[in-house]
Amino acid sequence: MITRRRILQGAAGTAGALTALGGPGMAFTAAPMDRRLVMVILRGGADGLALVPAPGDPNFDLLRRGLFIQDLHAGNIDLDGFFALHPKLTGLASLWAKGQLAVVHATQTGYRNRSHFDAQDLLENGLNTVSALADGWLNRALGYFGRAEPRTGLAVGYGTPLILQGQTPIATWAPRRLARPDPDYLNKLMVISSADPAISKALDQGIRSEKANRQRLGHLETSRGGTTSRRAIAGLAEAAGRLLSAKTGARVAALNIGGWDTHGYQNTALSYRMATLDGALMGLRAGLGPAWENTMVLVVTEFGRTAVPNGTNGTDHGTGSAMLLLGGAVRGGRVLADWPGLGKNDLYQGRDLKPTTDMRAVFKGVMMEHLGLDQAFVEDRVFPDSRAVQPLMNLVRTV
After folding, report:
1. pLDDT tens digit string along 311-356?
2. Rounded to an integer, what distance in angstroms lies between the CA atom of residue 136 and that of residue 89?
3. Quick one: pLDDT at residue 146?
4. Using 50, 70 and 90 to split pLDDT, how confident is the model at 229?
């Protein structure tokens, strides 16, 4: 027996992992803006001093030498004589050379404890307390553009991160795992659902979305190798870029890259993770194509790691880390840091890189300069309890 529930499930399945009530491929009116923003969240607490080392600090070698058997500077990619990039971030190095990469170092939210869950919640809800609101700051920001189609926000991967959860409708996309429904079956569903406007609309939008995205994504449409392999993550990022590159549809996306909780044998783990991150970001760039010139990508993590290694050649949960800003819209070639130093008396609680820049300062500046949000809306609606955090401006390249 075909029920209303089964018809809705079929409509959802038609679009792969797209939301049944519209997706990034079902936009038939002009998008609210031409600029793109992508949030990449490194889950687990990425070590900012490994991502962007500071060999120019006189205490860096002393603190970090326990992680290395050989020269800890081997392979580092110099940025400005003080800061460097991890050796595996070769794609990012090429962006630095083009002025399309900037770093904000010694950064963190207002959170100062070491719980993954609480730290991620505060990173994504943008507030000072975990339970104040159950939605994400990026979803609240998208409310600026209203609820009309096309849906401006896109969650890439299985599950919607908190940062995009909320009252503003968004689209979702993940690689298709199930076989595509037979066209004859879909035609029959359309006939059966024609008497119910809600079901009929959902099914029609799902079919149209699936068709549009299949044309855009090609081989990327189907999941290959799961969702955690280097190849799969690069494919996911490239797919996100292709969906965002459309003239109509989503303009803001978020995706996760996990595996950054490096309590043991950090160098080995990060060698793989850094290469995965670099490949994903280069895949995103390739997918965006010409739209890359109007894109800003923010790479963030919930907290950093301890400055001093532990007894298993790893690092424990810390505080300050580093943010990456990349894209054609970025005013790059700069490391922005109120550098606190790595001396014993400089470290936060004697163990961590001390945060000196609140990540919300960067987020606010990007919302205003890049996406064109009004400052009052940003202060009142997006980050309502952070007026003391001044927006960090001049992050966007002027044309």
Report:
1. 999 999 999 999 999 999 999 999 999 999 999 999 999 999 999 9
2. 29
3. 84
4. confident
Predicted confidence (pLDDT) at residue 170 exceeds the cutoff of 70: yes
Distance CA 320, CA 204 (A): 48
CA 321 to chain centre: 16
For residue 197, CA distances in Å to 4, 186, 189 come to 12, 16, 13
pLDDT of residue 151: 80
CA–CA separation, 203 vs 207, rounded Å?
A: 6
Report the predicted TM-score, pTM, of the whole model to 2 decimal places: 0.84
Q: Which domains does the chain have, with CATH numbers?
A: 1-30+180-221 (no CATH), 31-177+227-382 (3.40.720)
Pairwise CA distance, residues 1 & 179, whole Å: 22
**Which residue, among 294, 398, 317, has the nearest Cα to 111 in the 3D structure?**
317
Kindly report, residue by residue over 186-219, the tens digit of the pLDDT. Answer: 566 666 777 777 776 666 666 566 655 555 565 5
**Residue 11 is inside which H or E element, if any?**
helix 4-14
Which token pair is 35? 């600029």
Using a 10 angstrom Cβ sphere, with 0-12 exposed, 13-18 middle and 19 or more buried, the burial of residue 241 is buried
> How confident is residue 395, by pLDDT bands cut at 50, 70 and 90?
very high
CA distance 148 to 131: 29
Q: How many CA atoms lie within 13 A of 178 on its CB side?
A: 11
pLDDT band per the 50, 70, 90 thresholds, residue 13: very low
